[in-house]
Amino acid sequence: MPTVKKKGTTNDFFADVYEVARLIPKGRVTSYGAIGHYLGAKSSARMVGWAMHGCPRDVPAHRVVNSAGLLSGKHHFKDPNSMQKRLEKEGIKVVNDKVKDFKTVFWDPSKELAL
């Protein structure tokens, strides 16, 4: 599996966020904070969220949720229900805008991409 160097591989934080997000497997989710932590910016969940707001189409933004498993970014999709639909298509259950069994489907880049 490809890896991203901790603290990013480029001088472009957004590009590093997208690189990590592209590695999230289907059927798994991660959080904004987990991506930021992996990149060495522990208090950057909002910055990761900002990056995801304008991400390229090939970045699976629907797989990035808040630290409680809430679909907090759903309103950044053309159809606010799109995020849930995409997750459910990948086998992730969502109830009341929250990923069910969040801890089970959580993908932690700091553990999964350990160098």
From TrEMBL:
<feature type="domain" description="Methylated-DNA-[protein]-cysteine S-methyltransferase DNA binding">
    <location>
        <begin position="12"/>
        <end position="92"/>
    </location>
</feature>
<protein>
    <submittedName>
        <fullName>Methylated-DNA-protein-cysteine methyltransferase related protein</fullName>
    </submittedName>
</protein>
<dbReference type="InterPro" id="IPR036217">
    <property type="entry name" value="MethylDNA_cys_MeTrfase_DNAb"/>
</dbReference>
<dbReference type="InterPro" id="IPR014048">
    <property type="entry name" value="MethylDNA_cys_MeTrfase_DNA-bd"/>
</dbReference>
<dbReference type="GO" id="GO:0006281">
    <property type="term" value="P:DNA repair"/>
</dbReference>
<dbReference type="InterPro" id="IPR052520">
    <property type="entry name" value="ATL_DNA_repair"/>
</dbReference>
<keyword id="KW-0808">Transferase</keyword>
<dbReference type="GO" id="GO:0008168">
    <property type="term" value="F:methyltransferase activity"/>
</dbReference>
<dbReference type="Pfam" id="PF01035">
    <property type="entry name" value="DNA_binding_1"/>
</dbReference>
<keyword id="KW-0489">Methyltransferase</keyword>
<keyword id="KW-0227">DNA damage</keyword>
<dbReference type="InterPro" id="IPR036388">
    <property type="entry name" value="WH-like_DNA-bd_sf"/>
</dbReference>
<dbReference type="GO" id="GO:0032259">
    <property type="term" value="P:methylation"/>
</dbReference>
